[in-house]
Task: structure prediction
Amino acid sequence: MYSKILVILLALGFFSCGPTAQVKETQQKKWWKEAIVYQIYPRSFKDTDGDGIGDIKGIIEELDYIKSLGVTAIWLNPIYESPNFDNGYDVSDYRAIAEEYGGMEAFDTLLEEMHKRDLKIIMDIVVNHSSWEHPWFKASRSSRDNPYRDYYHWWPAEKGKPNYRYSLFDDKGDAWAYDSITDAYYLHYFAKQQPDLNWSNPKVKEEVVDILKFWAEKGVDGFRLDAFQFAAKDTTFPKFPEGYEKDFIQYYAMQEGLHDYLKLMYDEVFSKYNVMSVAEGAGRNFKEAHELVDADRNELSMAYAFDAVDLPNKEGYSPKIFKEVFTKWDNEFSEKGWISIFLSNHDQARLVSRFTDDNEEFRAVSAKMLHTFLLSMRGTPYLYYGDELGMTNIYFDSIEQYDDISTINSYKKTLSEGGDGETFLKHASKFSRDNGRTPMQWNASEKGGFTTGTPWLPVNENTKTINVVAQNEDSNSILNHFRAMTALRTSNPVLIYGDYELLDTEDQIYAYLRSYEGQKVLVVLNYSKEDSTLDLSNYKWSDILINNYQDLETADGKAVLKPYQAVILKLK
Ligand code: GLC
Result:
């Protein structure tokens, strides 16, 4: 009888002890959970040779600045050889660093200098597609029986036009491009200069694994897999329902085979070299997100979901929705899996211009609020270069000012479909990703200290006031608040591993508790241009850990929060 009970108790894990048995997956320690990632768009960071394009030497020169931010890892947008139709997201040699960035020698120095400073490096891997100038594609398009033919998706023209596929970047929205050399169509989910690789070909998989190994051998610490959720495709190319492009993710993302590709990468590279991995996108629902990142899946380290970053582009966006979305994602990942926390990147306009207010009255205080948020959530925070200064949109007003292929081609598409160019430009002025790509603002000079030449994209005129030099000197600057916030996160594991609990408050106030191993903090954000009152009588705090105003006004147990005020309280 007793032995039976014992067996049952054992089966239930009743006597299981030891640290791993008790710690839930979310709280199991990993360097990439504790990381604070700084994303650099290398083209725009710092130019040292006067060609108007940022380079690796520029990054090396600023490593001490980057270190001073308190970040622990750098994600670099692609710096491989590329004809740059999509600024590096069209790779023509996956093992070469572009000469304009300084070539491999510069990269090796960067790696060494970063590791010396205990900074990790995350490389962008673009293998849903290559450049049309990649030797594979050149060979593939040269004849129907070339050994590289099946590296890409081809549809012979004698079979008629293939079923419609939507392209995100094409000027006609068509993902099939006709190629007269072999009288066939090839597939490109992005621009026609970015043909999609055929992952159902085992040779393609082998090639990619080799490429990943090459970088892992060099000593990089992580990979960001660009657009990878689109990699698996039904190569019979069936007809999709009319109008599917309005929700194309449902048809493009997470198709059969994708998990096999990820598992292969995990087995051959991620696990062997102990590198972190994050793919762009997090599946089409929470279940799929978990299938990508739960530890027992052996696929990715963390997911990178778009629900939140896309919010300001949607009508009816409000602070209430903001907190609902983040709370939903957090709750889903409170036990297993891990997510990224971010509000900006190279595909978005600037943080303060989209989420809060870039007018001088509120720019600084609201940028500090957003950083307080980003650095106090559960999940790995990704911060985009220049946001630490509260850099703003540049607000172009004519199409000639743009460099971005997606903006330019969408404009052409709008016009060819009889759409209104003015309306398009008005929207692009606020939302085009070129807003987020203008050069880093190092100082108050005309070119912001970015280059001595002609910058590839104009430097925002407000570099006169918004720049590193000015903010370094000002103890009250966004930059110094950012540093204080990274320091706070790094020295308080509760901000990394702590459980999250949303407080029931008025819509414009976002308040949450984080608790971990007996430590408790309360984060309070007033996501509003007005004063807001919050009843705190149930909470006793010992310290204000950070505040983007000088004081926190309280009366009768209530806090009177100023516009965009953000505080973190250490609870007793
Ligand atoms: C991803 C990148 C984006 C790029 C596209 C095509 O979405 O983030 O910048 O243009 O993939 O590679």
